[in-house]
Design goal:
This is Type II secretion system protein I. With 127 residues, the protein is α+β, with helices and mostly antiparallel strands. 40% of the residues lie in helices and 28% in strands. The protein has a four-stranded antiparallel β-sheet, with helices on one face. The longest helix is centred in the first third of the chain and has 51 residues. It starts with 14 loop residues before the first helix and ends in a 5-residue tail after the last strand. The relative contact order is 0.13.
């Protein structure tokens, strides 16, 4: 009589092991995608805040350079970096030293959010 053939043991991964590995990979890929989207959003927000800071600094510099600063414009529109910005300024006289305290707020046009605030002092040339 002939003997039955020996069962050959094959090596490899079971279906369960492959499914667990795919689940782990999918979870990691989702986490990496989420983190990269967060970084992209934060980079855009940082760019907006930087441009808003430049707009505020430009506004303060313009007021300092004017021989008699035009203080009647509490709000105006400015374009910078292919965006439209709303610049709001509040000017109050100071007593010691005599001058003007200027507070500037900058935000994107069409939004109520203030992206940057700056405070500066300019000489009051009317006194």
């Amino acid at each position: 009589m002939s003997e039955p053939p020996a069962i050959v043991r094959m090596s490899g991964f079971t279906l369960l092991e492959v499914m667990v590995a795919l689940a782990i990979f999918a979870t990691l890929a989702t986490a990496v995608l989420s983190a990269s989207q967060y970084v992209v959003r934060q980079a855009g927000a940082a760019e907006e805040r930087l441009l808003a800071a430049w707009v505020a600094d430009n506004q303060l510099s313009e007021l300092r350079l004017q021989s008699s600063p035009v203080l009647a414009q509490p709000q105006r529109m400015v374009s910078l970096g292919q965006r439209d910005w709303v610049v709001r300024q509040n000017v109050d006289p100071t007593r010691d030293p005599p001058g003007l305290l200027v507070e500037v707020e900058v935000g994107l046009a069409g939004r109520d959010q203030t992206l940057f605030r700056a405070t500066g002092w300019i000489a009051n040339r009317h006194e």
